[in-house]
Design a protein that fits this description.
Number of strands: 5
Shape: globular
Subcellular location: Cytoplasmic vesicle, Clathrin-coated vesicle; Early endosome membrane; Golgi apparatus, trans-Golgi network membrane
Largest sheet: 5 strands, mixed
Structural class: alpha/beta
Pfam family, one: CRAL_TRIO_N
Strand content: 5-15%
Oligomer: single chain
Membrane topology: Peripheral membrane protein
Number of domains: 2
Function: Required for normal morphology of late endosomes and/or lysosomes in neurons. Binds phosphatidylinositol 3,5-bisphosphate (PtdIns(3,5)P2).
Keywords: Cytoplasmic vesicle, Endosome, Golgi apparatus, Lipid-binding, Membrane
Helix content: 40-55%
């Protein structure tokens, strides 16, 4: 094990080896091969190229050097093409701050059975008179920048749950195709995170209509990981245990406190005054390590009474266990 793998538990080390083809003996060589490709894209300013940074892109693309480099290039290209989005990218920015306080995103305290961090969005909370969809996207990207510093999450990834309860047609009308495509490009094509599942619950018919609009922009792998549950929360609970979910999602925990994650970011000096710069993407996340480290991010089984539920010896991924619940073809 190299120093670059020091933050991984033995279980996650094995997962990185088996699922991602991560080899400690060739890790530095893998990183250097990606770095050597930077010269092929002189049109892009690669503002950060240290080992730890490049490693997260390799993990996101299962150590395929070319795909990892393409993701790295798209990461910085997306930021170059959308400079206004990344100016003042900090939790104290008025639009970002309000979006965070309204739970965009919410971040649950427990990991799922696969070690993934669970993000929740309660769509009806969007106050369109106070902040825009772009502010929500910026808040999500800022949050992901903070969390992806954790090597455990680089390997295990994330799960997203979107609750569309009480999301009105008027609110939905503000979600233009160009805005949705901007979000897809930023999250699917330009960020080194592994999303194991995207779950829609309580979605009205017009959300299905929106999905048909964005579906052509989704990669096949992304489509397979989108699950439409409707009002059937039991199907959600088959994949994410109710013991770690708030009551709004049919879980056994108290209602989610929308300001929890906002306070975490605001309490850890996410208030740099500099605009777009190399340092802005580190986001002072070292101060967050005690909150985001494997030691404090308990797996879902930790909240279950001992003996009630046991972790299986080998757990298959969601896409292996279950196909999307509703096809929109």
């Amino acid at each position: 094990m190299t120093h670059l793998q020091a933050g991984l538990s033995p279980e996650t080390l094995e997962k990185a080896k088996v699922e991602l083809k991560e080899n400690p003996d060739t890790l530095h060589q893998d990183i250097q091969e990606v770095r050597d490709m930077i010269i092929t894209r002189p049109d892009i300013g690669f503002l950060r190229t240290d080992d730890a940074f490049i490693l997260r892109f390799l993990r996101a693309r299962k150590f395929n050097h070319f795909e990892a480099f393409r993701l790295l290039a798209q990461y910085f290209e997306y930021r170059q093409q959308n400079l206004d989005m990344f100016k003042n990218l900090k939790a104290t920015d008025p639009g970002i701050k309000q979006a965070l306080k309204d739970g965009f995103p919410g971040v649950l305290s427990n990991l799922d059975r696969y070690g993934r961090k669970i993000l929740v969005l309660f769509a009806a909370n969007w106050d369109q008179s106070r902040y825009t969809f772009v502010d929500i996207l910026r808040a999500i990207l800022l949050s992901l920048e903070a969390m992806i510093e954790d090597p455990e999450l680089q390997v295990n990834g994330f799960v997203l749950i979107i609750d569309w309860s009480n999301f009105t047609f008027k609110q939905a009308s503000k979600l233009t195709p160009s805005m949705l495509r901007l979000a897809i490009e930023g999250l699917q094509d330009s960020f080194p995170a592994r999303f194991g599942g995207i779950h829609f619950v309580n979605q009205p018919w017009y959300i299905h209509a929106l999905y048909t609009v964005i579906r052509p922009f989704l990669k096949d792998k992304t489509r397979k990981r989108i699950f439409m549950h409707g009002n059937n929360l039991n199907s959600l609970h088959q994949l994410i245990l109710p013991e770690i979910l708030p009551s709004e999602l049919g879980g056994m925990l108290p209602p989610y406190d929308m300001g929890t994650w906002a306070r975490t970011l605001l309490d850890h000096a996410y208030d740099e005054d500099s605009d777009y710069c190399p340092e802005s993407y580190t986001l002072s996340v070292k101060d967050l390590e005690k909150d985001l480290s494997p030691k404090t991010m308990k797996r879902s089984q930790s909240v279950v009474e001992p003996g009630v539920l046991k972790r299986p010896e080998k757990v298959k991924s969601e896409e292996e266990n279950m196909q999307p619940l509703l096809s929109l073809d």
